[in-house]
Amino acid sequence: MTHTRQLGLRDQLRSLRDALPPLLQEAAGEATTGAWLAALERNVLPALDFDLPVLLVAICGGGSTGKSTLVNALAGRRVSQVAFRAGLTERVLLVGHPSILDGPEVAARLLHRLGARPVPWTRAEDTMVAGPPLYATSGEISRGLLLIDTPDFDTGEGGRMVNRERAEPVLRTAEVLVYVFTNTVYNNQANTAFMAEIVGGIGGRPTVLVYRVSRVASDDEVLDHCQVVSRRLYGGGRGAAFPPEVIGIYRVHESDRVARGEAAPALLPIGEVTAGRPLTTLLAELDVARIKRHVFGADLRDIRADAQGDLDRARAAARQAALYRDALRHAMAEDSLKALQAFPASEALALTAKLFVETSPPLVRALRQTGVIVGAPFRGLRAVAQRVAIWMGTREGAPPAEDLEKQVQHDLLMAANAVRNRLLEEPLVVQVRGDHPLLARARSLAEASNAEQRPVVEAVSRGVFALQVPTPALARQRVAEVLAEDWQAISAQLDRAATDLVSLPAGIDRDLREKVIQFRQEMGWGQRLRESLFASLAALPPILGVTYALLTADPVTAAGLEIRLSSVLGLNDLWALVSIPASAGLTEQDRRQLEAMLKPVFQLWLEQRAAQVVQLFERTVCRPTLQALATVPDPDDPRFGAVAQALNELEATP
Ligand SMILES: Nc1nc2c(ncn2[C@@H]2O[C@H](COP(=O)(O)OP(=O)(O)OP(=O)(O)O)[C@@H](O)[C@H]2O)c(=O)[nH]1
Ligand SMILES: [Mg+2]
């Protein structure tokens, strides 16, 4: 690997390390899973920074199998405490050549791979006491090796493998393993399963088997047992050949002299792969560079796979939160309609009349000529004329009716309560039409295999779908707050807001004027001709007058003027229908024209008011939930793309 490539790789890996864990935390409220972050920080990044051609060789196995005895033999001195008691070695001990481990700087950087800062060894007994890794030196150890004595991984205490937790990180870090096992445990499922996970963990690590067995056992029996072990470790079927990861096999016999500490154990090479070489020779002959490349590549592959899993989960969680947030907005829009049952119909009618008058030059001229509409046959007409005058700026307007305000307050409270119930329910259920973007998003998330909780899509009727959107964990955590909210304070806030909602929204006449002009342009010749007839004053007053009479029959609900809200929707989907019953006594044509005139003002009112009510819900009932969701990164957050790119480049790294 060239220097510049290493630099590029290092940057990618660092950006992965820095960006992915917070992304996952923010999106899913979870810490990273898998060992990728530890492998990255402990193995790969230090290796890029500090490339020393030394192999880490871990001596591992069950309790009292003779690991420490073997380490002492290889080191040529008693560095590790040995005894008959299983579980004796309680901490990691590293032994290396003084030219490698000499100098605190080198030692510290080399041992940095183990996570905890190691301390210098002083005496063999230290290995019996739990603590940070120890390091010792021995001139007998090859310069290319760093031996590690490890705690056993099968001594139990209160149902826990106490030493396994100490051994595991070291074993995952080691580049070569020497697995020591005895005749009593060679067939032990638990030990080999643990080892298999470790050795398979980084794409198959080279392993030396050391089998402590009676001298009475034949070589064939010994090899047979070693076969059992290696199949357990690396898989593979029955057959004479050992997997390529097994790089050496030794048998070692029970010896009282060894047990008494008078002699070093004699490791007898067996099997073709060992080719009669002593263990020291075999280890010294290992191709350090090749093994390091292999381990490094395997580490990178593992990191990539694990990190990809985390990225996928973070993305799915972000998409889920965004879907929930938007579905909640949709639900709020649905419920906002409950708060909009009282349309200020007389105001709307007056405004429409005013705008039609203003935008119709012949009508204005006629009105100017005759002054206010005098002597019309309907009593209500005077009120309309007053309204028209108010809108034209010649008179002061009266405040909105009290009962209308009460109605709005009541409706608003009911709607807010409906929204609150939605927050407490799980999942959130909303209805959408077939072409609504929420539907496509819910479907694609339902198909995403990595989503923890998936939305469910159900067809309700033709073209209408119900979406069940799971509540993200982050929002679920806030349910208690939703429940604990001061409902009285919220009611008071809603009541105050209701005052503003009673009349037509401010500035609506500007938007409406455009619609009226557009409407007029779309009118056919015949209608325009009719409209110009309104100017004769004979035709206009009856239309306005009749309509006004209809409206004033019940100013709250505007009985007679039918308003229908469709609720299969979302704000963009709002459609409104204003219809005047045939019983109103208008000609079909006048009725249609009046409906068409009123429809734009109704729609504008509905859109603007619904948006206002939604905002009100956002500030009150939905506040805790929305606050929680606001901390979740958007699915378009550029950090997702940056992490994905870092992972892609890792894949391209040989
Ligand atoms: N007979 C015989 N005894 C051995 C041999 N190797 C080790 N022993 C003895 O077995 C006991 C355990 O040896 P240790 O080296 O402490 O074993 P260990 O695997 O380090 O044990 P833990 O640290 O407890 O996991 C000691 O009493 C050793 O003297 C051997 O080859 N033959
Ligand atoms: Mg030991």
Question: What does the model show?
Answer:
This protein is α/β, with parallel strands linked by helices and 654 residues long. The chain contains 25 helices and 16 strands. It has two domains: 256 residues, Rossmann fold, CATH 3.40.50; 309 residues, no CATH class. The protein is 53% helix and 12% strand. It has a nine-stranded mixed sheet, with helices on both faces. A three-stranded antiparallel sheet has the order 12-14-13. It starts with a helix and ends with a helix. The structure holds guanosine-5'-triphosphate and magnesium ion (MG).
Describe this protein with a few key phrases.
654 residues, alpha/beta, Rossmann fold, 2 domains, 3-stranded antiparallel beta sheet, binds guanosine-5'-triphosphate
Quickly describe the structure:
With 654 residues, the protein is α/β, with parallel strands linked by helices. 53% of the residues lie in helices and 12% in strands. The strands form four sheets. The protein has a nine-stranded mixed β-sheet with strand order 3-4-2-5-1-8-9-10-11, sandwiched between helices. Strands 12-14-13 form a three-stranded antiparallel β-sheet.
Number of helices: 25
- Quick one: biggest sheet? 9 strands, mixed
**Strands in their spatial order, largest beta sheet:** 3-4-2-5-1-8-9-10-11
Backbone structural class: alpha/beta
Ions, cofactors and other ligands present here are: guanosine-5'-triphosphate, magnesium ion
Report how far apart the termini are: 9 Å
Strand runs, count: 16
Helix proportion of residues, in percent? 40-55%
Mean pLDDT comes to 78
The low-pLDDT segments are: 370-385, 387-400, 532-543, 545-577
Rg over CA atoms, rounded to whole Å, is: 41 Å
Instruction: Report the β-strand fraction as a percent range.
Output: 5-15%
Shape field: elongated
* Whole-number count of domains: 2
